[in-house]
Design goal:
Strand order of the largest sheet: 2-1-3-4-12-11-10-7
CATH architecture: 3-Layer(aba) Sandwich
Oligomer: single chain
Number of domains: 1
Helix content: 25-40%
Distance between the termini: 15 Å
Low-confidence stretches: none
CATH superfamily: Class I glutamine amidotransferase (GATase) domain
CATH topology: Rossmann fold
Largest sheet: 8 strands, mixed
Number of strands: 12
Structural class: alpha/beta
């Protein structure tokens, strides 16, 4: 049986997009949480979990009540060693769920292609070793993780010091940038960005499209491999 991944989507304009196509060999079950889709209460049927980005904050459960069961599922995934990837908001949700902290970035919004400051730990990481050395990622965030969970390992640091990527538990990873996007998707987000800045960053994405795909396709492929290993291990039990 093909392994299945649960994808929690928080807004209509941040789907798993390119990353989903790169997760070869995984069937993706997308829960459109903002639309009222109910989240499962367990992950027994899934070999992996992906939590997408969104404009809300990781502590905004009162206004977005599905965030609470999302964090519950992240904790279950960590306890059961289900491979999990949190992207932007998903990264912050995973950090908070596992005992870390997030907050507004005192340096302001991160937007555009930003250099990735890999740590030595990323070279040997089960997931991020596949993309270690990738030069840039597309950032769009006001919030950042300000304290990792006790079990966390920082894998990348932004030029201005913010957490860019981390292993938050043995099989739970978070990434602050958006490996799933292309220029048309990011363009659809740009209403609130000063037009000249938006066009400059979008042009950089177009010019760097081959680089970005070469950087982040292996992330999707490796994540799918880890999910396959998880599926095989549970099937043998």
């Amino acid at each position: 049986m093909t392994p299945r991944a649960l994808v929690i989507q928080h807004e209509d304009d941040d789907p798993i997009h390119l990353l989903g196509g790169w997760m070869r060999g995984l069937d993706l079950d997308v829960v459109e949480a903002w639309h009222g889709d109910a989240l499962p209460t367990h992950l027994d049927e899934y070999a992996a979990l992906v939590v997408m980005g969104g404009a809300m904050g990781a502590l905004d459960d009162a206004d977005h009540p599905w965030l609470t069961p999302t964090k519950d599922l992240i904790r279950l995934a960590a306890a059961d060693q289900v491979p999990t990837l949190g992207i932007c908001l998903g990264h912050q949700l995973a950090a908070v769920a596992l005992g870390g902290e997030m907050g507004r970035n005192p340096r302001g919004r991160q937007f555009g292609l930003i250099e990735i400051g890999w740590s030595a730990a990323a070279a040997d990481d089960p997931l991020f070793s596949a993309v270690y050395g990738a030069p840039r990622g597309l950032h769009w965030n006001d919030d950042v993780v300000v304290r990792l969970p006790e079990s966390g390992v920082q894998l990348a640091t932004a030029p201005t010091g913010e957490v860019q990527a981390a292993r938050l538990a043995e099989t739970v990873w978070g990434v602050q940038w958006h490996p799933e996007v292309d220029e048309p998707l990011v363009r659809s987000w740009c209403d609130e960005i000063e037009p000249e800045q938006a066009e400059r960053e979008l042009a950089a994405m177009v010019a760097g499209a081959t680089e970005l795909e070469g950087s982040w396709r292996p992330l999707g492929e490796r994540f799918a491999e880890l999910a396959g290993v998880r599926r095989a291990a549970t099937t043998r039990r």
